[in-house]
Amino acid sequence: SHELKTPIFNIQGYISTLIDGGINDPKINIDYLKRADKSVDRMIHIIDDLETISQLESGTLSLDIENYNLVEQIHDIISQIEIMASKKNIKITVKTSSDKIKVATDRFRIRQVLANLLTNSLKYGKDNGETTVNMQEDKERVTITISDNGIGIESKHLPRLFERFYRVDKGRSREQGGTGLGLSIVKHIIEAHNQNISVSSEFGKGTTFVFTLPKP
Ligand code: ADP
Question: How many CA atoms lie within 13 A of 52 on its CB side?
């Protein structure tokens, strides 16, 4: 509730100021409406994430399993976050043994997982850094490794990283539009596919997430 109260109090503050005469002040009226609008977006984002988590936890979210090419999906996501990467001049490299690696997963949910881990690598990446996606397949599964050379995470935080609302640096995360729900959703989705995800990190050096996906 604390996470929701922050944007609500912000919206209340902007509206009160507008009611108290700010509405007639061209210096602030549009600006305050825009800020209130941003806080509404943030609330919607939090509620959407919470809805996903509660569906995943209660098991009401059923997976829609399809066979498709994971390499293509990764390139597709990268092309959509390229602008974000170019702002920090971060290079995203994909390493794969073949350009066709088939997985049997819920395409939409795995897209959420990949987008989340990749955008985190940019959000918490350093300028001129690098994000690497590595895919390796064996008989039964595909192992995906996403690593960055960004700010890293102190080891004391790692055991709680996948908990909902857990953020290492609240200020930085909020600044980046984060809710602290992303990794908890990621873990739920991977586990719903009966697979695992783990994290390793070196503070100041970078972070690596490794997870598996089932093959058809
Ligand atoms: P948020 O919405 O805050 O990004 P997440 O659940 O996605 O929430 O991540 C939880 C926390 O883990 C983040 O606040 C951040 O501190 C840390 N984190 C996640 N990914 C990385 C990464 N690639 N490098 C460094 N820190 C990370």
Answer: 22
